[in-house]
Design a protein that fits this description.
This protein folds into 2 domains: 227 residues, Rossmann fold (3-Layer(aba) Sandwich), CATH 3.40.50.720; 74 residues, no CATH class. Helix 1 crosses helix 7 and helix 3 packs parallel to helix 4. Strand 2, helix 2 and strand 3 form a beta-alpha-beta unit. With 339 residues, the chain is of the alpha/beta class. The two termini are 39 Å apart. It is globular, with a radius of gyration of 20 Å. It is built from 12 helices and 15 strands. The strands form 5 sheets. Strands 3-2-1-4-5-7-12 form a 7-stranded parallel sheet, sandwiched between helices. Strands 6-15 form a two-stranded parallel ribbon.
Length: 339
């Protein structure tokens, strides 16, 4: 079986590639640049931008399935960049699958497509898309997800499924956890990470191995007539954590003082609004230290009901949060020793 993984050089993508190759599949990865690690595992590199319709079309030729994990992430940037990567890119993937008779498309979405600044308490897949988003990432991912849902079973044999894993973490993460650690270790009190809100907000997280399992479960379950065809699923550990307790456990594990100082949600939200206004006014490209979306993410509870994923695609988080924390902290400390 031939599989294409977009974003195969990323955190989730590379873990997916490893498991797919272990299954004996022929795997190609589509990225904007070459990733040596994917090639070492036995994958074939295809270098192309998702917004390049011809290159994406060519990459889909001969494939039996596509895992579309690539996206422009983050909470700040130019709308056109987000649209090109997340909407146009997904549109091109769908078109490539249809033209070349690809049977399955497994799309990596995000829970942020289903909520904005409000709290999400045990939210399930019946929740409607919000009328307004606080960042372009969520907005464009929601538009892409709707396209993927609509494409399932339409004009041919392509079947699709969309997964919404929340805050993927674990060994090998070079984005989420390292950024938190760096911000917490800042020497400047002004720049140092602070608890936003009460510090008691609960959030869902997803250990990397569990996120990969969810994608493989969806791939296996996606057959004609399956309940998962054209469906979306929240994916997580199955039990939320208190965000700031979780962060402090990681910090203590790498010998960084736990966070204690707090700022209110209202203060952070207002600061985010000011930062956004100034950055737009002066065309500043770097990420602001705070945005309205980030203020909500750090202070509000957002966790989800994964009963549907358990029932319809057989998802079961095999690695517990406690096991994952041990593995993560061990890997972080090993990296420090090697560095």
């Amino acid at each position: 079986m031939k599989i294409l993984v977009t974003g195969g050089g990323g955190f989730l993508g590379s873990a997916l590639v490893k498991k797919l190759i272990e299954r004996g599949y022929q795997v190609s990865v589509l990225n904007r640049r070459r990733y040596a690690e994917a090639e070492k595992m036995g994958a074939v590199s295809i270098m192309a931008d998702l917004s390049d319709a011809d290159k994406v079309m060519e990459a889909c030729a001969g494939m039996d399935a596509v895992f579309h994990a690539a996206a422009k992430a983050g909470f700040w940037g130019d709308y056109n960049d987000y649209y090109a990567a997340n909407v146009t890119g997904t549109k091109n993937i769908i078109a490539g699958c249809r033209k070349h008779g690809v049977n399955k498309l497994i799309y990596t979405s995000s829970p942020s497509v289903a909520y904005s600044a409000d709290e999400a308490l045990n939210m399930d897949e019946s929740a409607p898309y919000p009328a307004k988003y606080l960042c372009y990432y969520s907005q464009t991912k929601a538009e892409a997800e709707r396209m993927v849902i609509a494409a399932s079973g339409k004009d041919g044999g392509l079947l699709t499924v969309s997964l919404r894993p929340h805050l993927i973490w674990g060994p090998g993460d070079n984005h989420l956890i390292p950024r938190v650690i760096k911000a917490a270790a800042e020497k400047s009190a002004l720049k140092r990470l602070k608890i936003v809100g009460s510090g008691l907000n609960k959030v869902d997280i997803t250990y990397i191995d569990n996120a990969v399992d969810a994608h493989l479960n969806a791939f296996d379950a996606l057959i004609p007539g399956a309940k998962c065809a054209g469906a979306v699923y929240f994916i997580s550990q199955g039990e939320p954590v208190v965000l700031w307790e979780f962060i402090n456990r990681i910090l203590c594990g790498v010998n960084i003082a736990p966070l204690e100082k707090k700022v209110s949600y209202n203060f952070a939200y207002l600061a985010g609004m000011v930062f956004e206004t100034v950055y737009r006014l002066f065309g500043i490209k770097s990420e602001p230290r705070m945005t309205r979306f980030l203020a909500a993410q750090l202070s509000k509870s957002h966790y989800f009901n994964i009963a549907r994923a358990r029932s319809e695609i057989g998802y079961q988080p095999k690695v517990s949060t406690e096991e994952g924390l041990v593995k993560l902290i061990e890997s972080l400390n090993n990296n420090v020793e090697r560095g």
